[in-house]
């Protein structure tokens, strides 16, 4: 391609990653032809409001759009909405859409995100059984929650807990069913996971731990959730939140290297020249953490999309953030930064009293007489997350006693 030829950029995805990629490209290439393909009829939107303000009825759905549809026209972007991409031809440099159209590309971004994991049990297809991933999912669930009644949330992960909080905002009777001993056990551990259980219990939610779901009852509409501990929990609305998986099927048609997502280097380039990946679907090389990392949260979509767009436009970038996410449940606002490998042997250090709903938690790796901070979270202890990220990025060995002491400023530990 000569220097004076217009570059044809093709972005596949309808989330925040795709929107931010447009911004990254346009920062450095005002002339390139950009086409954005999404399987959904909506322009790109971000997902956190779908389980928070939109689902609680506190904000209209348009709060989820980082840009109005007209912005893409202003940026010279061709939107192909409601047209799923079916396959990628690397040799022909084309993408085939569901309607048979073939779109050419010189530089391609996969921002295909994730898809929900579904329960394969009797009654799983009954009306009234909801999943939450898309804008349409959120609006349908909002209508159901506004009707009140018994709500059962299957799974006590981030989505399940936020949905439970939203359902209580609507005055619903809420039960959470979770097979492990505590909510968020794999991420938070039993003590902090237990705090989440207590938070929801204090707001009138029945939390049933150590219980699995074997089926749903009802004829024509769900009426209950059948558990493996015996009995049926009445339900007018069921929300299943049992995790998501990276959407790699399209990447597979191009022969890209895949391992828990699409593998990329630190510039978000895949194993095939001319193709990038970012957001939930990307398992990127983190030089900070010394391993490939895949993160399913807003900050990665936001920052990774922008970084991918810049990389596609020819900028020499290294994508190396400290992973970050946030959640709001009732009066508890929290932020989490860091990454804890499963093989890290991490220990928990708590700063403050969780019973007050104002505390911090750190996951640390023992090192000599001290510990190195792998991740940290605050609950209602604001303006602390930058200091947490600094501790992680610098790899400083700290004293557990000082780390747990609220009177010691975090900045003094770095």
Q: Rounded to an integer, what's the Rg over CA atoms?
A: 22 Å
Can you tell me the residue ranges where pLDDT is under 50 for at least 5 consecutive residues?
none
> Describe the biggest sheet?
6 strands, antiparallel
β-strand amount: 25-35%
Write the CATH homologous superfamily of the largest domain: FAD/NAD(P)-binding domain
List the domain count as a whole number.
3
- CATH class category name of the largest domain: Alpha Beta
Categorize the overall geometry.
Answer: globular
pLDDT average, as an integer? Answer: 96
Number of helices: 11
Task: Please give a structural write-up.
- 25% of the residues lie in helices and 31% in strands.
- It has 11 helices and 27 strands.
- The chain is globular, with a radius of gyration of 22 Å.
